[in-house]
Amino acid sequence: MDVTLGLLPDSPAGDDGGGVPSGGSTTVKSILTKEDNNKNNMVMCSEVSSSYPVGDQNLGDLELGLGLSIGGGGGGGLKGKVVAGGGGWSQYARILTAKDFKQNSCSSSSCSVSIPNSATDSVSPTNGNSVVGWPPVSKAHRMPSLANENKSPTGNRISVTEQTKSKNRTVVINDYSNEKARISDKKYRSVKVNMDGSLIGRKVDLNAHTSYEMLAQTLEEMFFRRRSSTEAAKSSRLLDGTSEFVLTYEDKDGDCMLVGDVPWQMFLSSVKRLRIMKNSESNELAPRFQESHERRRTDVV
Amino acid sequence: MTYSFPEEVLEHVFSFLTSQNDRNAASLVCRTWYEMERWCRKRIFVGNCYAVNPRVLIRRFPEVKAVELKGKPHFADFNLVPEGWGGFVYPWIVEFARVYPWLEEIRLKRMVVTDECLEIVSKAFRNFKVLILSSCEGFSTDGLAAVAANCRNLRVLDLRECEVEELSGHWLSHFPDSFTSLESLNIACLSLEVSFSALERLVSRSPNLKTLRLNRTVPLEKISKLLQRAPQLADFGTGAYSAEIRPDVYSSLQEAFSGCKKLKSLSGFWDVVPAYLPAVFSVCSQLTYLNLSYATTQSPDLIKVISQCHNLQRLVVLDYIEDMGLDTVAVTCKDLRELVVFPSDPFVADANVLLTEEGLVSVSQGCSKLQSVLYFCRQMSNSALISISKNRPNLTCFRLCILEPRAPDYLTFEPLDVGFGSIVENCKELTRLSMSGLLTDRVFEYIGKHAKKLDMLSVAFAGDSDLGLHHVLSGCESLRKLEIRDCPFGDKALLANASKLLTMRSLWMSSCFVSFGACKLLGQKMPGLNVEVIDERENLNLLPENAPVEKVYIYRTVSGQRLDMPDFVRIMGKDKNGVYNLSLCDKGL
Known about the structure:
The complex is a heterodimer of chains A (301) and B (589).
Chain A: E1 2-9, E2 27-28, E3 62-69, E4 190-195, E5 202-205, H1 212-223, H2 229-233, H3 237-240, E6 245-251, E7 256-258, H4 264-270, E8 271-278, H5 287-299
Parallel strand pairs in A: 4-8
Antiparallel strand pairs in A: 1-3, 2-3, 4-5, 6-7, 6-8
Chain B: H1 7-14, H2 20-27, H3 31-40, E1 43-46, H4 54-60, E2 66-70, H5 90-99, E3 105-109, H6 115-124, E4 130-134, E5 137-140, H7 141-150, E6 156-160, E7 163-165, E8 184-186, H8 196-204, E9 211-213, H9 220-229, E10 235-237, H10 247-258, E11 265-267, H11 281-284, E12 289-292, H12 299-306, E13 314-318, H13 322-332, E14 338-342, H14 357-366, E15 372-377, H15 382-391, E16 397-402, H16 417-426, E17 432-434, H17 441-450, E18 456-460, H18 466-475, E19 481-485, H19 491-496, E20 506-510, H20 516-525, E21 529-534, E22 551-556, E23 569-571
Helix pairs in contact in B: 1-3, 5-6, 6-7, 8-9, 9-10, 12-13, 13-14, 14-15, 15-16, 16-17, 17-18
């Protein structure tokens, strides 16, 4: 008999093992807490619900069990009772808040769900913010005129197992275009980004961006999750001073500078890490840039 | 009741079993057959280099002549796998060098190959013949020089879409004058110039040369010289196909091509100058493979070439071909098996070319042998997909990429569920499917119900809930590779179908809703799986267990934990104490 991992829904009648034929194995404590359910349901299509009993089931009732099942197959302990939605998603509070899950009423013609965790709702590459790895065209088939889209996240990592001497090398990109590549020679250049008040740092690939605007939009999307098609058209709030945060960077001399004052290429060559700083802290910035920053703020009416 | 069947007879019988699956099946019959088979297996294929380790392989198969290994997951092609993830071939090469001195062939895909690896290969295997590196990286032209200098019996050197650190073009000159065994050379992915005279001399002294794919730097004017020296070529890739328009250059080119009576495959064509295209007309009717995917020229020029390719079986082209050009394909290329249309300008939202779903429908109608499609376009409809499925129920590979994520049927604005559903329902032999556009859980229901022979499925920006994933994992009996990005699939379907994962090679999920806790649980409960969480964020320790991971890559393995992981890869649940193997993230701060 196969031992499979199955999701065992608690049945109200209380028979042990739920839908598992020969239950009685150890059950593992549920990783889904019994939070109050469901103000925000995941989207369900009405056409689908006919085959499966879907409803506002409390996911907190689901237990993870090691169930014995007869025969193979991936169904495991799940005997036709799949909970397709329901509440309890709100416990994913830290990264995705309950507000991130839009409540959609499902029409028969279209169902769509907003996925806050993914890059964009719509690819609007003309404003410079594309989804990583989309469209799925490998490097060899990216055409010459699109040198700026060569987002290969490779770097200078060195294999651990090999006994070769470590080589810190830059790799030549196949430069199909006749012009020189506008981006630095390294294919993937990630810098750390920290935001004041947030413990989770991120990394962003600078070579995947060609302008401050693009970079700021990526960061806004990473940290503020304010990405929507209407916002796309506006210029970045981080850059124009209307946000309560300001985008700064540490350059190779260790100074803290405001992002946006020097040409993009110059910025790329000197930036070491990024910091999204609260406006109230911005007096730490190098003085000569403070003025332009102040000027910018007063320009905004 | 015992019987004795002479070993020599068994061995002879086994020599007719070429497929690895057949040999695996034979080895399970009885101990005698197992022993017999393992001693005479010459060719090994490892689809995931971390599913097994070199020692296990060597212990079982002592007499191997050819090895094929694959490393990184497919989505590495689209920059979804961070650099340093793994796929290092070095430990394998070291073991092979120790145990298989008579190894002849190495084929690697998406692996990290260093110069040291190439040096070992060039010196450890005296009869080394075939080196094919596909989408590999980590080596430089120094490594190539070592191969050129030392592999006396080399027949094939094929660098397919590799990333090579190009220190100089001089490496080619390291092939000694005594070296005459070359049959196939593919350097199309290199960008530095190689010495043309060295190349010409090499071609001249290689009477068995059948495949020659040059890189972009070889000028058009010099190609005729090479073709004259190698009229026996079957597969040729030009360099940059542009030059000043000169009648003498044109006529010698045309003459050179017409001398290649055996030419069946043509590729290259960077920077194409249309005026030079007619130089290849004399070979068009011989061609079975034509790759114009670097030819940035408009439809009429492409049509002039393609309309003469009556025997074409595989066509790779840019969307410059447009619907009109595909109509020509449908009428001309009656033997077509495979069509690939790449996007010329994928990052522009508005269509820059007149290529729509119509082109594909047209080809599906006209080309009765069409089996494999990779098609990038900007609009699609359910009715077109239904037509395609009804025209071509013999499709085995259908990969459709609508450039805008979640684009609906452009006529009805509905999801494309019904269209793709029709594909899986009518194309009963479908083994590979990639979907795009607006898709709900319903399409997965269709797939789970009908796609019984589906081996590989790629999904992006699709589905509504775990139900979608559950349909696929529970319904697709033959599924071995599943790769998912940006879909609202989470823990439930994954955990409910955990045992299915043992029947598959691998599952990739990125930007979905799979939590740390679920990964840990899966890793703990399923010792036959490596559950790799790939996450580059800092301070992961501070995230709760129900927070979603960035990427998870799950594969079956008999090799256990791998030891070459970078800090952003954690194999979950394998620690004895049940605490998952989360490395300390604050060391970088």
